[in-house]
Amino acid sequence: MDLPEKRPREEPSKVKMDEKGRLIDEHGREVDLSYSNRIDLDVNKQRFEKKKKKQHKFLQNLKESSKSRGFFFDKNLPKKKSSKKISMGFNFTNTNEEIKLIANVTPDIEWWDKEITNSYSELYNPDAITAEIFNATLPIQLPFNTTTHNVTMHLTEKEKKKIKRLKKAQKLKEIREKIKLGLMEAPPAKIKISSLMRVMSRELAQDPSKTEHEIMEKYNERLQKHIARNEESKLTHAQRVEKALRKRRRDSARESRIAVFKISYFSSTKIKFKLMKNASQLALVGICLILPSPSPSIIIVEGGKRAIKFYTRLCLHRIDWKSDNSSCELVWNTEIKDAKFFKFKILSVESELDLKRILSKKDAMNYWSLVCTWKGNNDMLL
Q: Global pTM?
């Protein structure tokens, strides 16, 4: 079977632009780019027009059936209201699916002037304006306080460590950036005896004694700087006392407690000094009233939870009451709302009347009643 010969492929003619800006083919003829020479391809034009007519006919029938309220239309359903907002200054009409605007730009009266006048043509009296328009009410004082308070955020130990680690990493990153830009010299390497062979193996092979001596000098210099920094940041005795008192006051501000002790008669100045000194160091307030024997004495102390716990251990365990033929018992320990005393005092009174008179001034007579009725049981301890 003879195959048809292949037609030679026609190569597109070469086009170039002359000096006048015209397109010329390889034979020197001008290429015409007018609209009449363009190719217009209509793909399946008849089929498309037939489909379009069919759709138009279906839409026309659907519109006529909706106008005549056909079988598929429920008469009981309410009609949907138009969602279009109609302006008060304009009138709109909707005919032939086109919105037409009827000019009504200047109404007789605007809505904000209706309470004052009925027409702009009339001359209205300003006094006719109702007083309610100009009635300025005074600001009402709110029953609660509207001032804002700064709420402190309490972080956990894990969060504090994380913030500290991030700050340290940020500071180290800034130092490295400055070293890269040449704004800061790189710090010398911190070489120790344990890392000597790993860091300076070459120098150590040349002169071991000299290298070791230089490293020890640098190590001692760093150590002395570290000790000097610690000495500078160390608090003085007065600062340490102030810091301890500040911690005790912070403890009492969180929770205030009271402890009442019943003590048999004692006269030791050593015990009095311990009671007074520890109360001042722990920022405790209260009073110690000593009655003559055989009447019992009373100690009332108020302060923070930790300070009361420390003072209770002092009175019950650390002080040797047997050396003065005396004893101490805890009668009452609980949380209170406000402190009744301003500082700690130790007073010796001659009679029970003087004791009651002092306690009545501080509204603390109930504590003396507890001491008098105390029988040594722990039922009232909280």
A: 0.44
